[in-house]
Design goal:
By secondary structure, the chain is an all-alpha fold. It is built from twelve helices and no strands. Helix 1 packs across helix 8, helix 5 packs antiparallel against helix 8 and helix 8 packs antiparallel against helix 11.
Length: about 220
């Protein structure tokens, strides 16, 4: 059995989740504290991947990153970077596509923190960054864990976006969801079942772990 699509899938999900954790935290912090008139616009842009068909996003990524168009042409001619049908392109498209799955849990967690705790931190002389990293983020560990798991699982299950921007290049852009489609097209149901079963089992275990951690079941087990 060819494990390459599965390994590429989890590599993509891991890279995307790490990048999302870094960029989604400041976005969620701004959204949870901002009173700017631009806030609804930013919230709408962040949430767009939740409602748009993946193929629509994939099509616009393909158009934007194509070497025949503005951004893609500039990246190719100036920096020598080709995003279409490349792993880098898959990462960028997946980060944008999975952005709400990381931003929303963290934003919800930050919004739930009592203002008195934050104000007490400021009164004690802590800066905004110190308050965020030493007071606020430690209090929303379940929300952060939920964001990490949802982003990872969502990236593992992507199909439309990765097919549009990455195509189907073995070892480079052919992830497990594409491999399953290929095997079904070839009537090779045993291979399709193998890929599907692995994704099903791993996704189940990840979600179960989240519910066990967030529900404090581990603490009750070890009491």
């Amino acid at each position: 059995m060819n494990w390459e699509p599965l390994l590429l899938t989890f590599k993509l999900a891991l890279v995307v989740t790490l990048i999302l954790l870094i960029i989604a935290t400041p976005i969620a912090y701004w959204l949870s504290n901002s009173k700017s008139r631009l806030k609804p616009v930013v919230e709408t842009l962040v949430s767009m991947p939740l409602v748009l068909p993946p193929t629509v996003l994939g099509f616009y990524f393909l158009m934007a990153f194509s070497h025949n168009n503005g951004v893609g042409s500039w990246l190719n001619s100036v920096l020598g970077i080709k995003l279409v049908f490349s792993f880098t392109g898959l990462v960028i498209a997946s980060v944008i596509y999975s952005l709400p799955f990381m931003v929303h849990p963290i934003q919800s967690g930050l919004s739930s923190i009592s203002k008195s705790i934050t104000e007490a931190s400021y009164v004690m002389g802590k800066s905004k960054w110190e308050t965020l990293f030493k007071i606020q983020l430690p209090q929303i560990k379940p929300a952060i864990l939920t964001g990490i798991v949802l982003s990872f699982a969502h990236t593992v299950g992507e199909f439309g976006v990765v097919l549009m921007i990455g195509g189907n290049i073995p070892g480079k852009t052919k992830v497990a969801s594409i491999a399953i489609y290929d095997e079904v097209e070839a009537l090779n149901y045993d291979a399709a079942n193998f890929y599907s079963l692995v994704l099903f089992a791993i996704t189940f275990c990840i979600l179960l772990l989240v519910y066990l951690v967030n529900g404090n079941y581990f603490k009750s087990f070890f009491k």
